[in-house]
Design brief:
By secondary structure, the protein is mainly beta. The protein contains no helices and 5 strands. The chain is 0% helix and 50% strand. A hairpin with a 3-residue loop joins strand 1 (6-15) and strand 2.
Length: 74
């Protein structure tokens, strides 16, 4: 794990070809998570997302995942 990276725990709301829409469990904010591995996940799953910490100011905000893992709970 990159020591400069940030972790987000969230619940998958929607799965698309190249991104996920996730609700951050801490802030309750919806975030678009760009990843080529989006279709490996399912709606309702809890995930742990590692990213650089950079987030766009768009609606919804966007991040680019460095890695995504399934989580036991949110």
């Amino acid at each position: 794990m990159d020591p400069d990276s940030v972790i987000m725990v969230g619940r998958v709301l929607h799965v698309h070809r190249d991104h996920l829409l996730v609700r951050d469990c801490r802030t309750r904010q919806e975030v678009r998570v760009n990843t080529p591995r989006a279709r490996r996940f399912r709606r309702g799953e809890s995930v742990i997302i590692q990213y650089s910490g950079a987030m766009t100011m768009s609606i919804p905000p966007q991040i680019s995942a460095q890695s995504i893992m399934r989580n036991i709970r949110c």
